[in-house]
Amino acid sequence: MNWISNYVRPKINSLFSRQDTPDNLWTKCKECGTMLFHRELADNQNVCTNCDHHMHITPRARFAALFDGGIFTEVAVPAVVEDPLKFRDQKKYPDRMKAAQKATGEKDAMLVAEGEMGRTPIVAAAQDFSFMGGSMGMYVGNAFIAGVERAIELKRPFVMFSAAGGARMQEGILSLMQMPRTTVAIEMLKEANLPYIVVLTHPTTGGVTASYAMLGDVQIAEPNALICFAGPRVIEQTIREKLPEGFQRAEYLLDHGMLDRVTHRTKLKDELVTILRMLGGLPPAVVADLPAPSKTPELVAPTDDADQSPVVTDSEKA
């Protein structure tokens, strides 16, 4: 009886007990309410397959889709002073940083990498909105400048993916100083005759919009991205009027000449490759960079049984 109760019954119970399901298997789209399986969502680069709503995507996931084969090398970023102002609100700034680092697995709100995109060598930087709202602090400024310096060193284009709530209030004036610092870095790119492409994603606001996010040679945005300095709610509360529908969204800015393109995330790589190769005076990218069919030597079957290798015709030799 002990054998049945101690061994058999627990085994039977374990077979029929309810299995715990991980919480991150399904994601609900905030726009249409569709439940999306995590693999399906990841395969579509965090874009809803039902309504095309562009959700937040981490820099690593973006780079995995952007660089050829998902292969890239991180660019080292100089360290910064932690908590220079000894700032504290509801939580100490170092504690807030540690929580963000634990949640995202990143050092700060920007990742810089180098690699090839469509066989076109580039240096790219991307902000992580899930890290304290992608806010711009000293580390982000250093990361941007490190990316620019690396692009100049390698003579490569620099591509920036912005996603930020603005300057980081916990660093005060030191965060605002990153605006002129990054602007000077962009001037260095221009002096080196290297393209600077900006891809604005949802949301790009505040000091980031007022600096490096709007200084690109080509300005591209993802669909329906909020791009502004002050947000619509702040403006409405200030002027006490209702703003037009779609105000400060990517399509509105495109219609009013603030952007060059609005491009779906899944088509962004091809768009960037085309633009960068055009700016660099390179021929359009083709699959595996194979020669055109008309330039391939014509092969004919050999007439000598002793030689089994194909030969080139006289017309091709001429």
UniProtKB/TrEMBL annotation:
SUPFAM superfamilies: ClpP/crotonase. Residues 25-294 form the CoA carboxyltransferase N-terminal domain. One of its GO terms (molecular function) is acetyl-CoA carboxylase activity. It is found in: Cytoplasm. It catalyses: N(6)-carboxybiotinyl-L-lysyl-[protein] + acetyl-CoA = N(6)-biotinyl-L-lysyl-[protein] + malonyl-CoA. Binds 1 zinc ion per subunit. Keywords: ATP-binding, Cytoplasm, Fatty acid biosynthesis, Fatty acid metabolism, Lipid biosynthesis, Lipid metabolism, Metal-binding, Nucleotide-binding, Transferase, Zinc, Zinc-finger. Its main location: cytoplasm. Signal peptide: none annotated. PROSITE patterns: COA_CT_NTER (PS50980). GO terms for biological process: fatty acid biosynthetic process; malonyl-CoA biosynthetic process. Pathway: Lipid metabolism; malonyl-CoA biosynthesis; malonyl-CoA from acetyl-CoA: step 1/1. Its EC number is 2.1.3.15. It is an enzyme of class 2 (transferase). Belongs to the AccD/PCCB family. PANTHER family: ACETYL-COENZYME A CARBOXYLASE CARBOXYL TRANSFERASE SUBUNIT BETA, CHLOROPLASTIC. HAMAP family: AcetylCoA_CT_beta. This is Acetyl-coenzyme A carboxylase carboxyl transferase subunit beta. It comes from Pacificibacter maritimus.
